[in-house]
Amino acid sequence: MNILTVQDLVVQTPTARLVDGVSFSVRAGRTLGLVGESGSGKSVTCLSVLGLPPRGVQVSEGRILFDGEDLRAQTPAQLNALRGREIGMILQDPMTSLNPLLTIGRQITEMFRYRDGIASRAERRARAIDLLRRVRIPAPESRLDSYPHQFSGGMRQRVAIAINLACNPRLLIADEPTTALDITVRLQILDLLRGVQSERGTAIVLVTHDLHLVRRYCDDVAVMYAGRIVEQGPVEAVFARPRHPYTKGLLGAVPRLRDLQHRLTVIPGQPPQPGSIAQGCRFAPRCPRAQADCASTYPAMRALDSQRSVACWHPEPSAAASDSLLAATTS
User: Fold this and answer.
1) DSSP string spanning 52-115?
2) Which residues constitute the domain of residue 294?
3) Quick check: helix, strand or coil at residue 257?
4) What is the mean pLDDT of each run of 10 residues along the chain (331 residues)?
C-alpha cells in the first residue's frame, strides 16, 4: 500500500517553475531515494509535501496523497495535526532544527505534551529517556538536561530522529540527514533509521547526493534533474542498467573502490537556471545522445516495464551498461 503518492506536482515562484510535473510514490516499509544535483528540486519537493514550501514559493498544481487523502485539500489546522504525528522530517543540519536555547529534554517532551496530551511531567520525561536510549544516546538520564551545543553532530542528529519518532510517524522524510557527518557516523544514523523502519513499517523518503547510500539503504530510486524526474525504478535495476543518460553520468562519477585506476565520468556544462529552461529536454545541452527532436519537445515519462520508467527520447540501450556500475556503489 502506498503511504505517499505525489502526482504531477508543480511548485513555482512568480517567475519560474522549480518543480515541474513530478510524480512518485513510496510504500509502507520501503525507502525511496531521491537523487540529483543541487538545485534539481529535491528539497522543495519534500517541503511542499509537508505543506511548507519556501517563502515566495507555492504549489500550483498536482496532488499529494497521504494514505489516500489529498493533503492539498487539508486546512492549515489539519496539516499541522499531521506533521509530527503522521509525517516526520529530518533536516540536513540538526543545529538549524534544534532550538539552541532549550534543553534536549524540553524539545522531546513537548511532543508528548502537545501531540499526545500527556500532562504528567514524569511520564513525559520517562518517555523521552526511553527514546534517547533507543537512538543510542549514552547515559540518556543525564543527557536529557543538556543543550544542543553540548552534543556532537552525530548525537544531535540522533536527537532529531528521536523527536521525529516521538509520535510514531508513518512517513519519514530525511533531507540530506547525514551530509555533515563523517562516514562512520553516517552509516550509524542510516542503520538506525533502517532499524526503526523494520520495527514500525515506516515509509522513508531519503534525499541524498551519495549514491553509495542509495545503493545500500534504498529500495527504489527517483533521479531528478532541473525540476523533473528523469528516471525511476528499483535501485538494483536502475543502477545495473541506467537508461537515462543523466543517470548513467551520475553513476559514472561514483568512485569505484574495486578499480582505483578508473577515471570518473564528467558531465559537461551546468544545470539550467529555473527561469531559463527551454521547451525541449532540459538535459539535452549536456547529453551525449541528444538529437534534433530533443531540443523541440520534452519527453514524457514512459514505462519501460511494470516497475521502471524514463523520460528520454533516446534512452541508453537496455544491455549497454556494465555490471561494474552496480559494483561501483557496492563497497
Assistant:
1) -PPTT-EEEEEEEEETTEEGGGS-HHHHHHHBTTTEEEE-S-HHHHS-TTS-HHHHHHHHHHHT
2) 244-328
3) coil
4) 95 93 96 94 94 93 95 93 89 82 92 78 90 89 93 89 86 88 84 89 94 94 96 96 95 77 83 83 94 92 92 84 49 47
Q: Answer for the pair 210, 277: CB distance below 8 angstroms, yes or no.
A: no
Task: Kindly report the number of other CB atoms within 10 A of residue 312's CB atom.
Answer: 23
Where does a domain end: 108, 136, 166?
A: 166
Cβ atoms of 243 and 231 within 8 Å: the answer is yes
Give residue 188's Cα distance to chain centre: 18
Burial class (CB in 10 A: 0-12, 13-18, 19+), 76: exposed
CA-to-CA distance for 226 and 275, rounded, in angstroms? 11
From the number of C-beta atoms within 10 Å of its C-beta (0-12, 13-18, 19+), residue 25 rates as middle
3-state secondary structure of 144: coil
Is residue 21 one of the residues assigned to a domain?
no
Task: Report the number of distinct structural domains present in the chain.
Answer: 2
Task: Give domain status of residue 31, yes or no.
Answer: no
pLDDT given for residue 323 in this prediction: 45
All three cell numbers of 102, joined, read 532549550
What local confidence, expressed as pLDDT, does residue 254 receive? 84
- Calculate the CA dihedral of residues 71, 84, 171, 145 and round it to 10 degrees: 160
Q: Is residue 253 part of a domain?
A: yes
Please give the Cα distance from 155 to 138 (Å, whole number).
9
In a domain, 28, yes or no: no
Q: What is the DSSP letter of 14?
A: S
Last residue of a domain, one of 117, 136, 166: 166
What's the confidence (pLDDT) of residue 266?
87
